[in-house]
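Continuing the series of single-chain predictions for the mutant panel. This is the parent chain; the variants come on the following pages.
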Amino acid sequence: MDYIPHKSEDIKRMLQVCGLNNVEELFSSIPPELKKDPLNKDDGLKEIEIIKIFDDFMKDVVEIKTCLAGGGAYRHFIPSVIDSLVSRGEFLTAYTPYQPEISQGILQTIWEYQEIISRLTGMDISNASHYDGSTSLAEAVVMSKAITSKNKIVLSEGLNPRHISVLKTIISNQNFNMKNIPLEDFQTNITDSDIQDASCFIIQQPNYYGIIEDLESVAKVCNRNNVLFIVVFNPISAGILKTPGECGADIVTGEGQPLGISLNFGGPGLGFIACKMKYIRYLPGRIVAKTNDYQNRTAFVLTLQAREQHIRREKASSNICSNHALMALRALIYCSLLGDKGLKSVALLSCQNARYLKKSLLETGLLEDCTNKPFFHEFPLKFKTDEERDRIRKKMISYGVLFGIPLSSIKGGILFNTTELVTNEEIDRVISILKEI
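Parent structure:
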C-alpha cells in the first residue's frame, strides 16, 4: 500500500525544484551499504526468526563492568524512584499537550523542567526540550541567524564531533557559512578577526576533550563584536563550575542524558536549550507559562502559540516542535531528588575519580599526558602508536572494561572518563589488568 499522498506529477515538480532527476538522488547522502538489507533476506523473516538472530548475536557480547568512556554519553547513577514515577500511567503515555486545559499535570511538569534548566544554565528562559543535544545546537544556530540576519557561524573545534556532524547536516541547505577555530593546547582562544561578521560563536563547556574553557574571556570578545555567544554545556558540571549564564552566554544548549536518563544503547536522549529573555520569541519549540485562571487558581498554558507548527506555520521559528516530554520528566525528577548539594556531590566525585584514574594510568608508564590544562571528568592521554592503543582497548573489553574512546586527532590518543560510579577499587583493577596485558 502506498502511503505517499503525492501524485507522480507532484513528485516530478518537487524534484525539479530541488534540482534532482529522481528520488534516488534525494537519498544519495546515505551510504549504499546502509541501504542494503542487513539480514540479507529478500523475502523477510518471521518475528521468531528475527529474535533468534539477535539472541545469537548477544551471546558474543561481553558484559561491561567498568566504563571509562564518555564522549557525550555518560554512565551516572540513576535512583530507582525515577523509573517508578515515570512509569505511572499519567506520565508514560504523555506526548505533548495540544489542549492545555485538559493537560494541567503534564504542563506543570514541563514548566518545572523549564525552571530547572534555567537554573542549571543560568539563563532566563528554557523551552520544553528537544530531541537531543545535537538538534538543540542546530536550533540555536538557526536562532542566531534569525536574530542577527547573518549567515556566518564560527565554532570551536572543541565541540563534540557528533554535534558538528549533525549541525552540518541540518544547516546544509540553509545558506550558512561555517568556520572552525582550532584549539591551542586543547583550549579555545579567539580574536576579534576570528568572529568578524559572524552571527554566533559556539563553544563547548567542558569541551570534547574534557578541558574547562575560559568562557568569560570568550564572552568579552563576542560582546565586543556583537556576536551571539552559544555554549554547549554539560549540566552535571553545573555542580562545581560557573553556569554559562554567569559567564555571559546568550544561548545555552546541551545533552540532558546525564540527568537520570539511561544510556539505552544510544537513545533516546534529551536536548535542552535556554536563552536570555530578550530572545524568547526566537526560541523554537514549546514554552509553558504559569498564570491564574478566572477563579484566580494557578494554571499552566502553552504560550506564544504563534511559534508553533500547528498555528501560523510559515512564521514559526522552527517546525521541529516535538519535545521529549518523558525524558524531560526524568531529568526533572533526577534534579529534584539530588538538589543543589546532590548535584555538587555527583560533580565532585566524578571530578575526583577522573584525577585518580589519570594519575594511576600515567604511573604505569604506558601512556603519556597530552596537556596540563584543567579538566572536569574527562581527559586525553596517548599511547605510542594507534596500533598499541587499539590492541589494548580490544583486550580490555574481554575483561569487561570499556577502555576510553580513540581520538583520531592525536597519534595514539584516547579519551578517558569517570563518573561517580567508577570507584577507586575499579580503577585499581583496571590498572592491574593493564599491567598484565
